[in-house]
Known about the structure:
Blueprint: H1 3-12, H2 14-22, E1 35-37, E2 43-45, E3 50-51, H3 53-63, E4 70-76, E5 81-86, H4 87-103, E6 111-115, H5 120-132, E7 135-138, H6 145-155, E8 159-163, E9 166-168, E10 171-173, H7 175-185, E11 192-196, E12 210-212, H8 213-216, E13 227-228, E14 234-238, E15 246-250, H9 253-266, E16 274-277, H10 284-296, E17 300-304, H11 316-324, E18 328-331, H12 333-342, H13 347-350, E19 359-362, H14 369-379, E20 383-385, E21 397-398, E22 415-416, E23 422-425, E24 439-444, E25 454-455, H15 459-466, E26 473-482, E27 488-493, E28 497-500, E29 503-506, H16 507-515, E30 520-530, E31 534-543, H17 551-565, E32 574-577, H18 591-599, H19 613-625
The structure holds coenzyme A (COA) and adenosine monophosphate.
Amino acid sequence: MEYSEYYRDSITNKEQFWKAQAANLQWGKMPENILSKNKQGHFQWFADGMLNMSHLCLDAHVEKGNGMQVALIYESPVTHKTQHITYKQLLDSVSQFAAGMRNLGVGEGSNVIIYMPMIPQAIIAMLACARIGATHSVVFGGFAPHELAMRIDDAKPKLIISASYGIEFGKKITYKLLVEDALKEAKHKPDYQVYYRREKHFDSLGGQRDMDFEALLKCGAVGYRHLPSTHPLYILYTSGTTGTPKGIVRDTGGYATALRFTMEHFYGVKPGEVFFAASDIGWVVGHSYIVYGPLLYGCTTVLFEGKPVRTPDAGIFWRMVEQHKINHLFTAPTAIRAIKKEDPEGALIKEYDISSLKYLFLAGERCDTATYNWASEQLQKPVIDHWWQTESGWPMLGTMMGFEGQSPRAGAAGKPVCGYDIHILDEDGVVIDTPQTEGYIAVKLPLPPGCLTSLWNNEARFKKGYFEKFPGYYLTGDSGFKDEEGQYHIMGRIDDVINVSGHRLSTGEMEELVSSCPDVAECAVVGIADELRGQRPIALFVLKDGVTATEEETEAALIQLIREKIGPVAYFRNAAAIKRLPKTRSGKILRKAICQIADGKQFNMPSTIEDPDTLKEVVDTLSRRKLGMAFE
Ligand code: COA
Ligand code: AMP
């Protein structure tokens, strides 16, 4: 079948389509009820099915006689280590760690927070949770203790699993101390903290409720138990418009079905191939395509504790492709931009044999044409941009490389992936699918299997954030348009979410923090274009009358505040003083206009502006401080 026929079938014949896909998995009980509604009235898939994700990712392969196949290659240039772990070895460690957790009273209904660097123990912890029905919530290691504390208070974990430290460009990130700081702030107290000690002789435990990761591996082993398909496999917090992150809840059966489907039909992978998603397990890409997707499909997955550049150089990806015979590489455009900056002629690419590589997949942020073209010319491989979100858990737009005759191209995010009935809507919810007309990108309900099933503990926010604006549709939060070839173009977020180096962050949250500074009367935090990182946040702030602090002093305090509260990944480096902020007559700050001025884009003077001179002040301030592409 061709893509278009398969796609049409996935929309017009949904239940049969996904039933057939689900049948590719080993269920404990095959679902008969394919699509139904839950108590809250939301669609759910495979409600009466039973399965276990760790069984699908591990036992199923060992039972088939593939136990000696390498499941995981751990490549850590920061510790000069490479480790190959077979399916059997991974199964043993996961079964043991699951037994250790069970001894601590963790089981079905318990939440477990995992806050770890990119080491195999993080994946062992995730799969061990899945084995015993605990719901994990992995928190990205680049987040500061305050962010971790908010997640602890929301998820109320029984256990936190962490490590003594991680390494970032030669700096030690002391995870254990960060956990301790978070616990001082959080109201909820987990029963235990489990630490993987990277250097046994130096890394002490200390606290009464501190447990040694390795000691938990010595409590026997447990088998898997089939769980309901709707069982929450994980909660993954992501940024929204407010300071409180939202906990995306993912089911088990729908997710497994969707991931299995994408491995074959989207990424065009064959079992046994080597899949390298150069992301972090703290992000959705890490969950879906470092851990669950490749493992349940019987691939070898690569866990990379390093960066695309400077660990040790911009040739690391290509060296790994040669060394591990990587077939599929998935990374963020930022990583390619960083490589391109350090190796513009692609000299390092030529040093390695990259013939095993079939495709380069890019996602997480908009891919500019220059980056796309550079990668495609240097690698001489198909480059596939694809668009998706933490909420979807798997690609929504892209070029499905599992089908014959597909030709991805630069400048567009692709066509709808099977299962997603995507439309462009205007402000009133009217479908405006006419080419080149920009609007809200929305997906007609039901969403396909594997997408978010709720927001943890927050039904009201779930409904309001995604389903209320356009009844019958899921609101993606992005705007865009379709072109004459049916390719979609993503224009950006419609809310206060920005993407810094492929990391999703909330300017709304940063604004709340900046406003909390006693000297600041009001402020606007916006994401401006950044050549390397895609976007970066800056603040414009108005000082309170009578404040004696200088602009420099306030800026330094704000930079420190964001670093302390959100983390260095926010890359908040500038805050400029301004006399007045541009506002509408009803008092709304014109953030979009500030971005457009900074980025040097054309903009129409909003008819509702209170005082047009305030935009002139924005121009003067940005130009004085050389902030934004237009003034650098
Ligand atoms: N843990 C702790 N700190 C982290 C971190 C982590 N996991 N990731 C980044 N940081 C820190 C960095 O050390 C840096 O700290 P500093 O201000 O003290 O120097 C800060 O956060 C900003 O980091 P970053 O924006 O990553 O800049 P960089 O110059 O260190 O690296 C890139 C630039 C492009 C190499 C890097 O951003 C990168 O690899 N990007 C790709 C990200 C990606 O794959 N995202 C995919 C999501 S799907
Ligand atoms: P996250 O939930 O962290 O995966 O971030 C999702 C958001 O990143 C999307 O809503 C988009 O705004 C943006 N995004 C992801 N992939 C792409 C892409 N290929 N092109 C443009 N924007 C993207």
